[in-house]
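Pair request: fold both.
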Amino acid sequence: MSFLDDIFAKLESVDKETLLWESHDTTATGGAAGWGVTGRELVQRVSQARACLAARNLKKGDRCALVAANSVEWVAMDLAVMAEGLIVVPLYSRQAPSELVAMMKDCSPSLICCGDAALRDGILLNWPEAPPRVLFADIFAGQDRENARLSQAPTPHGNSDVVAIIYTSGTSGEAKGVMVTAGNVGHILQCTSAQLDILMNNRPGQDRVYQWAPLNFAAAWITLLTSLLRGSSVVMNTDLSKLASELRTVAPDYFVNVPALLERVRKAVDEQLRKTGGVVLAVYTRAKAAYMRKQEGRASISDSIWLALTNAVVFPTIRKKMIGPNLKALICGSAPLSLDTQLYFMMLGIPVLQVYGLTETTGICTLDDPRRVEPGRVGPAIADIEMKLGENQEIMVRGSNIFAGYWNRPKETAEVLRDGWFHTGDQGEVNAAGNWKITGRIKNLIILNSGHNIAPEPIEDEILARLPGAQQVVLVGNGRSYLSAIVTGSLTADQAEAALDAVNATLPHFKQVRAFRISAEPFSIENGLLTANGKLKRDWVARRFESEIEEMYAVKQAV
């Protein structure tokens, strides 16, 4: 049996409880407004979608593009496409139509399923010869189809059968289609579910999960499939501006997030307490300092008193207002999480479990063990895979989670899959306990004209931690004699100078940042400097700020 057989068996068994909820608003009474379906009702919608697909005489292995925001119908379509033996190509609905068309031209879908008419029309405008396009509204309108394929089991899948092509975010170039197999997904779902059993202490009943990230991303997709396999109750966000209020309403047991979100939450709490002022701010500030001294092994008796007071009075209130009373852990992936941020949430009594992986590893290589979290590290390798360090401390992985290759790109595939090992491009280290740490990205290495190789990420994190008003810090200096920085956000030159002085004092001379420029406008998806899932496009930043970068080096050299 494949992972799809297991998912459908679980869905059929959930006939009374709501399994999938599409949230659209938050009422004054604190209840989530929207609509939901039981597992069996979701299977009925999958049946409708399968009937629609079958009527088009598509054959096994044909690609079906899925361009829509998160919704119950998105989930039904995803399952239906795979159940029919087709390959699902989930795409980010907020990307520019021209970018979507480029990816679809690459994979040549036989059918494009769109969430709304605006998406369909945008695709057609950029691709007049596009293959057939169908709207969700038309797929799910035919009530006569409701039970047409309920009795049909999913098309059998072998472990090597490709079930999805997920496009990478393309930080330095054109996005590539990652071919994910049924064996990849089945193995990862076993690993994720086992870790969640530990987190939930094998508690009977439904886990309560909040799903906010777009489902076209590998980590979000795996989270969804894991939830369906477990029969969890999933609330899907459809409006990111409501995220903070919905979290309190949903009160999840856990949810998957990214470092940028945790950083925003942390800064928002600090800002709110600064505005509140008074005794609460004083106690909170002292407790934070005491907690950090405790982590460094130099806590005093008075530190213990401040922490006990804050744990009794302040931190429970923050937790309740932030996320609700049920949270067992925050699960964080997609990019390195700063140690300070992880410790901050642990100080509040909220465990942060880190995950490391790439789309090419079906989203996961390592998972924190909920019983043995080591702050600053991303946990041990998942079951039945191997990880080791290669040249230049590059992380290499092999096992059942490794993708089948890039769609129609044999050269690029051969570059990263060598002798059975996937070369991640990430630098790392592993300690005696088997816990991994991600230290940088090989392609991001800055090589000074002195020959020194510098991973920019740790230095950027240190600077950002000292600049509450900053949004991003990006180091530049490849081929130059020293490092410089571009800082975005609301801050003054004096603040930036002070932060750099403090960080430089801890660094060897070749890692010190000697110049900077401030940009009030943060990098974003909209201005083209972040990828669709929020990763930095360093090459694009360098091109956009070329004149400012040249000016920094010209000024210093003149001096």
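--- second member of the pair ---
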Amino acid sequence: MSLKVVAVAAPQFPEGIVGKATLNSVDPASLFNACRLAALMAELGRGAWGESNWTEGRQRRRDTLLLMHSLKDDGPAFERLLQEVEPNLLILGAMSLCLPGAVACAKTAKEMLGDRVCVVLGGWHASETIYADGKDEIVHHPGSPVLLMSEKLIDPVFDLVIAGEGEHVIPWLGERIADHMRNGYLPSSVVSNLDGLSEVPGRWIVAWNENGTLRATRGSRSRTVLDGMPPPCEMFGIRSSFDVFAGRMTAHVFSDSGNGCTYDCNFCSERRSIREPHFELDHAPQRLFQQLRSAVKVIQQDSPTRKASAFVEDSTLLAGSERHLRLLVDLLSFAQLDLRFGAQLTVDQILKLPDGVIRDLKSVGLDYLFVGIETPNPLLVGGFSKDVGFRTAPWISRTEHAVQRLSNIGIRTGAAVLFGLGENHESRLGLLQRIVEWQNVYGSPDPVSLNWAVQHPLKGRDGGTGYRYHQWGVPSGPWIDAFSEFGEASVHFPVVGQRSPILCEVQEITRVQRCIYAQRRAKTNT
């Protein structure tokens, strides 16, 4: 029996479709990264992966990866995929709000395939709830999926849980499952023989529940070497097309410079102290350039009538480093790619960069920057680590200055707004009105992504909330529509010290957001 693999990004909501005003991609970028080395082994015909269902090219391989939004609406597609492939390895990726969706998907797979499938959970929820403490002891946060299974708070549907870097673990696991099946064993029983796993490169922890007992093994402290890793788009193709790039196909690309952000804002799951980024910027411009060049090549091959665009998924583009941004400009200038791309920078990073650097980035294809606005006054909600210019001018004034500066250079902006940090409802509506005024003057920011702050596990640095995350963050009913235009949002898991959202207030914000979206689309169409 050959290795047959399906990989799924678990849904955040029990039901509901993606709102028109939300930022949306059809490509599960995090899964692409986690599975890219396994896909390369399949591409090269190596080992069990070279005989798996992933050997038939990136288009067929991509068909076995699914990005789910809601369980009810995307569940039938997931079941059809299980019926078609009958996988013996199911890889599930989940953020904390997606844990109930991952449990439901795993349960469906076990009901359909039983022990003929090994179900593996990974993603940032696993990484934030299963970790090593200062004494190198493995710790389980109250929301750890393995702990929840042992306490019977969720069904025992995950055979293994991977925390941390899974790029090398997944290929190893596929090989071991194939060996297990050749010897007449069922795929799920692979947990009984994990000899050699500890030698797999990377900083990871693999945990499982053995008859109610928590078991785990871990990798080395050294980070996975990312130089030479295959670009995800070459392994899985590109199917997204972001509106901001005017009909171009859009790849998700990475510099692989680090796992997190240079800043340490306490509300953020990408904060430096949690992600332990260990920034590797020396070769980051080259790695990012290679991925951008690959995006152009893949789109030319797979979608020859379309042009190429890309969005850089770094928390901030090359950490906002002027020297490394100039290196990227040099590489792109020499290559002369037909490419437009977007990225993320903070307000103060934008204001700090010289005009010449921003104009040079514009000249090689950068025409869109996404910034986090979060709230009108950071000081009133406890402050932000990234609010480094607070002594020079108020946050909202600096934000407008950044939008104006980019507009003058010809770079459009988008914005992420984060409510639920302690601001009052009037200030939320006031911020949205301020953004509308900027749109009328500068044409940006557009789109505006709404989010409601969620308390993440943060490897135990969660203010003592100890949320278990085994229930849906947004329950079925009126809350689904109220949060339909939001990205990340939760009713049950507010950030430490804050109350849960109020339905009528969220409904009013959603109405305003839909009006903003409709007005912007009307102007675009005229």
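Observation on the second member. The chain has 17 helices and 15 strands.
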